[in-house]
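Lab notebook, bench 4. Continuing the backlog of folding jobs that were queued last week. Each job is logged with the same field layout so the records can be merged later without manual cleanup. Today's entry covers Transport permease protein, a 285-residue chain. Filled in by technician R.K.

JOB TYPE: sequence-to-structure
TARGET: Transport permease protein
LENGTH: 285
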Amino acid sequence: MSTTTLTPAPTGTTPAAPATKVHDEGGIGLRNNLRHIGALVRRNLLQIKKDPESMFDALLMPVIFVLLFVYVFGGSVGGSMGGGRQEYLNYLIPGLMAMMGMNIAMAVGSGVNDDFRKGVMDRFRTMPIARSSVLIAKIVVELGRMMVATLILLGMGFALGMELHGSVLGLIGAIGLAAAFGAAIMWIFILLGLSLKTTQAVQGMGMLVMMPLQFGSSIFAPPQTMPGWLQTFTDYNPLSNLADSARALMMGGPVGHSVWLTLGWTVVITAVMAPIAVSKFRKKS
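JOB STATUS: finished
OUTPUT FIELD FOLLOWS
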């Protein structure tokens, strides 16, 4: 931390207003920017260490969802697919990988909003760091939490008898694709956190966004069993594309169409929402 020495103004003169240095993204440099992101990531990780209860959602959510859907809906939905719980388990786990990113992303928006209310973000904005580094550090830490949730999800799946019909590289590809899409979705929730006044409002709006996308998708059930109008929505739902991509990569099957659509959604969402979120962060009072 640097200190500034204030020199008194000469007698009889009016003190000049202190100059405010504006730190733009390009003037800081890539190396310093990465160093700032690393320092902020460490700060966020120390927060989790201080408050381990903040990891409960990432640790318990995969277990609850797997047990709930496999043993409550697995028999009926699996039967309609021509199999049983085993068939549904192989269908569900790749779909839930698409869901993890959405649920973890909502925590990013709530965290950003809470930091602003506590004045933490105001302190960051007075420092000589790129504004984007604060938000990117948030995303890096939440991606780490998402990876923990995904590993627990896969562990539960394999423990219950999930069979990997694809290759290990396909599994790694599915995890990477889910992480990339999850990072893109986080920019949307960061913008919500910067735009809404309270954490409760962020969570409420987040649920309004998540519920139709999650349940109006191919995550939990094949779209063929849905009404025609809902099938149309499901076809254009990016979560359906991600779930279908993960299934194809993990269980075998054609991957080109759904994977390219998911990558397209990821690029478009990031390209549109990230600059808006960073601009909102700069201007938020």
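OBSERVATION: Confidence is low (pLDDT under 50) at residues 1-23.
SIGNED: R.K.
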